[in-house]
Amino acid sequence: MTELARGAKPGQNHGKATVLVVDDSATKRYLLVSWLTRAGFTVVEAETGGEALRKLDDAAVDADLVVLDVKLPDMSGFEVCERIKTDSRYGVLPVIHVSAHAVDVNDRTQGLNRGADAYLVEPIEPDELIATAQAVLRYYRARQRAELLAERMVKLAETTLAINSASTLPALLEAAAAGAVEIFGGPVVVVAETSEGESLAAAGPPPAVRKWAVPRHRVAVGSLVRTDEPADWDVVEWPAGESVAVAAARLRIDRPAVYVAVSGSSQTPGFPVLRQLSQAVAAAVEAQRSFDEEHRIAVTLQRSLLQSKLPDVPGVEMAVRYEPAGAQTEVGGDFYELTVLDGKLLVAIGDVAGHSLHAATVMAELRHAVRAYAVEGHPPGAVLELANRFMRTVLPADSATLCLFTLDPATGRIRMASAGHLPPLLHVDGEARFVWPRGALLGLDAPQRAELELELPPGGTLVLYTDGLIERRDADIDDGLRALAACAAEVEPDLDTFCSRLLTRLGGSGEQADDIAVVALRRN
């Protein structure tokens, strides 16, 4: 049984249906077979109810309709009809009862109540038999098309949800191809271009994404469905003699089309579900392309706002790392600053709340404000108070964390203040410990941030970082701090190597969810 009926496919021509005639009278069976054959039907015969059920079980007998006598030698036609209607092996199969004898209303009612679709009584006219058979088949085919469409629409909704939940274009195409296999069966190909112009195809089953370009066709804005040769879509193997139904959807003139290709025999007239699937894929691809482009622009802007060259400070080694969040995440507001002022090294690291282009621009304003206040000669605690006043006046809807200190390279003396930022990690003589300056984050009306003084001895290393390095949604922040302390128990001679190891070990696998900034200093 297919999802339409035994032997029926969505795109098949139903003009030559197969009828199983069941009657124990050879004469009557001959007449029924003759009339149906002349009308263009393919006819299979059975003499008893048992023989009819056995033939329906036979895969070689692909019946679309059963013409069934009421009185049979082994069982009643009513019982045969009821078995056909209640046994899922026979699928949705229409039955027309015929009777050689006049029967009362109760018998006709019993036949219809037990599943028959029509009841003809002698004398049966050939035209009446043919018209009844055609009417019953028309109804069933319409019903089967409606049921198929409803089933496919449910699967289309599930597929649309899956493709819109995908975080990357390859995952989106794979979800679309998997959904198309569920909807239509057989081989499928879904093709779209990335924002960089690379053409990707998800082909299956099972769906796998690879580089593959569609043969060039002019596609106007909108959608269309065409029939192609399998050779044009040789990224998968198509059944022999199969055509390929290709839906192309293009939402903008400056964007390439998205394609969904399936077996031509899987389609119903008008290609309604295939069209809607291609349009849903095109809308999701367009959103993904736009996000990828905006994310790339935002990351480029963010990197341009960060310090590109570190100062040269005799007696102090420095290394920094900045890694933006994964492609599916908006840019954040992480930043760092290292500047020499009046012979001392000014170091700042901070994180503006939120993930957006706005957060990146707030980061740039705050970084420049901190540097300007420091140039005026204010100590770290006073710089934080001025930066807090700046944010509450100019950026009242935003907040940020910030750790700021000055380092005297000659003595190693550090003067530090913090506005809600994570504690720096100090590594001295093989021991790592956190330094805990206290203070509320910027953007709040809070008491003045206190300063903390400490010394960085020769050989000592100080590590500053943002929350992307240690925070995980499924773990407590204290677990992240302990992991950082364990990872920093040893510091490589080369600070760049040390910072790279921190990112590799602590940054996690796969797409990272937050920006990461790391600053490491060592006094020689």
TrEMBL record:
> What PROSITE patterns does the entry give?
RESPONSE_REGULATORY
Q: Which organism is it from?
A: Actinoplanes ianthinogenes
**Sorted UniProt keywords:** Hydrolase, Phosphoprotein
- Positions carrying 4-aspartylphosphate are 69
Name it.
Answer: Response regulatory domain-containing protein
Where the record annotates domain Response regulatory, the positions are 18-137
